[in-house]
Amino acid sequence: WGLLLSASGRYWDDWAALDLGAVASSAWSKQQGLFWQLDLLELLSALPGTERIGHLLVFFAYLACALILYALLGRVKGLSRQAHVLLPTLFAVFPVNASRYALVTLMYAVSLLVFMVGWWMIAVDLKEPSFTRRATAAVLLLFALLSTGSLMVFIAVIPMYLAWAHLRTREGRPEFRTMLMRYGFLIGLPIVALLVRSVALQPSGIYA
Predict the structure, then answer these.
(1) Residue 18: which of 42, 39, 37 has the closest Cα?
(2) Residue environment code for 87-107, b if the CB has 16+ CB neighbours within 10 A, otherwise e
């Protein structure tokens, strides 16, 4: 993936999604049921060196996601050193395909990064409980769910991580009821996201 650092071309649907203009971009965005993704590409189109900047953003977004996962695993006791390194490495490398070279997929890299930051805030909250931190994490996670539908399934990993970290904690472990009160909102987030999508982000036109 280091080749992304030198990539300066357009691939796949980049020719259709970049340089659309504000009016066309807004219309296409509404038809696809999107709310910020094409605005990001429109902003990127207005910058000098669009392709190079876009590929740098993709590279560092995925790199940041892998580093956050490494940090998340490091907060759980009992994980072997090999697993601690191997899991983030696999996460960073796979899937191996050319999709990351297309700037139209930048939106997925950004969504995943926002998701990982929200997850990180939840992990920190385990040892340093804060309502403000949990509320911020909820907003970030909801944003990610609304942006990328596949994260609706992936969000199940966070409660599993919490349960795993909770069971590994020997001292100062909160009761199950306390954990449910603090993090029960994770169960409701996909439901809220589905409702918002069905009301405000419905695809139309040829995408309906």
Answers:
(1) 42
(2) bbeebeeeeeeeebbbbbbbb
- CB-CB contact of 59 with 4 (8 Å): yes
19 and 110 Cβ atoms separated by less than 8 Å: no
- Tokens encoding 152: 């609706």
Q: For the segment 63-99, what is each residue's pLDDT rounded down to a tens digit? A: 899 999 999 988 877 778 888 888 888 887 776 555 6
Sign of CA dihedral 96, 101, 106, 110: positive
Model pTM score = 0.82
As given in the structure block, the two tokens for residue 132 are 């403000």
H-helix or E-strand spanning residue 186: helix 185-200
User: pLDDT value at position 46?
Assistant: 72
CB atoms within 10 A of CB 11: 17
* Tokens linked to 22: 């504000």
Quick one: pLDDT band at residue 15, thresholds 50, 70, 90?
low
Neighbours of 114 (CB within 10 A): 22
- For the chain, the maximum distance between any two Cα atoms, rounded to a whole number of angstroms, is 57
